[in-house]
Amino acid sequence: MNKQKFQSMIDEFTVNQEELQQISAAFRRDIEMGLVDEQTSSLRMLKSYVGLPAGDEQGEFLALDFGGTNIRVLRIKLHGHGQFEILKKVAKPLRVQGIYDFIDAQAKAEDLFDFIAGLVDEAIDENHEQEFLLGHTFSFPSEQTNLYNAKLIIWTKEFATKGVEGQVVNDLLSEALVRNGVGNVRPTAVINDTVAVLLAAAYKQSSTYIGSIYATGHNTCYLEPYKGEAKARMIINLESGAFNKIAPNTYDKILDEQSEKPNEQRLEKMVSGRYLGVLFGLVIANGFGASNKSYDFTSIDLSAILSDETTALDDVKKIMEVKLERTILQEECEWVRALAEAIVVRSARLVAATFAGIIWHLDGDTVRKQHIAVDGSLYEKMPLCVESIQKALYDILGEQASALDTVLENGGSGLGAAIASAIEPVT
Ligand code: BGC
Description:
Elements: H1 3-11, H2 17-36, E1 46-47, E2 58-66, E3 70-80, E4 83-93, E5 95-96, E6 100-101, H3 109-123, E7 132-138, E8 142-144, E9 150-152, H4 169-179, E10 185-191, H5 193-204, E11 208-214, E12 218-224, E13 234-237, H6 250-258, H7 268-271, H8 273-287, H9 299-307, H10 314-324, H11 330-363, E14 370-375, H12 377-381, H13 385-397, E15 404-408, H14 412-422
The protein binds beta-D-glucopyranose.
Domain Hexokinase C-terminal: 210-422
Family: Belongs to the hexokinase family.
InterPro entries: ATPase_NBD, Hexokinase, Hexokinase_C, Hexokinase_N
């Protein structure tokens, strides 16, 4: 393998300033077309039936956070004034290799929701006397008709449990709670995790209108003002991971074809943690002359590769030699690292381009001073992500980007679910 060949593969992951601006403009167009008619946009534009919190919401609530391979149930007390307290937290994985798996194509809805009901029971210390209201952060594309009623449109993030798509998820949950003797817990609100992040961030500080998840999956929501229309402001879950106006490169195409749901979630497959390691593995297989092989890398490997500060890139060498089962030269370690950097930086730049598209829709050419709330392991922990988002915002918006401040809203899914239970719905 030679350096030029490797470099040309890396080049497939670069997005220049002009391309970024075009992506932002296309994203804005998809929002504006989607507001008129969702069928004409690749964004799902899902209504959440909530606006922003006032910050004075109070009370004790259960919060179910269902969106990744780990499921969490929390008991949260809201004190108002942006203050809250976590009284109890239980968490379990939905899949333990060789033991159980509630999210693969063999798993059934009943078993999955029975497992969740068990966790809820733990969170309330098996107290079956008191009534509890439960806010549910369900982080998959769902069609809502009100704050309670959300029907799963399609699984994402490679989830595949049978019998959930097309169903009202809170009904499946309520039935499981009753079956398991926990009928005193009443699911009230269901929201997407991006909505939860926005609610949680806005509960603590005003001037926050955009909430995003940058983790295993990716998605963004924002507060739609319905300018010039007599409609109450409402948070719209864009399902931006489904955005499909970015030209895929060779590896994006292969990844998509091999995924659970080809043609769906095209942006998510370019940017989110579930897929970055897979993309990296595809390029490595091609680069190291074994394109018939697949290498199992994860975004945690990418993070380790980018965090290697040794001069000889010892960690990179170790990771690669274990996966490829052969000796890796120092020069090759450098290419590998450059590839990891290109994949992660492209991801962050594309995410930033979608933020800029929303800002253009909301503010036009005069960007208001505001925070953009983001939660997720990539934003929090992946080297290069935060600074690449900021740089890309400047590339797209110029000096106007100085009005924007992206903030980490850690653990927003739980707090947001509790706020959604406490808040007045928008009808
Ligand atoms: C889902 C979104 C979710 C995002 C982040 C995506 O796969 O479609 O609903 O917000 O992941 O968890």
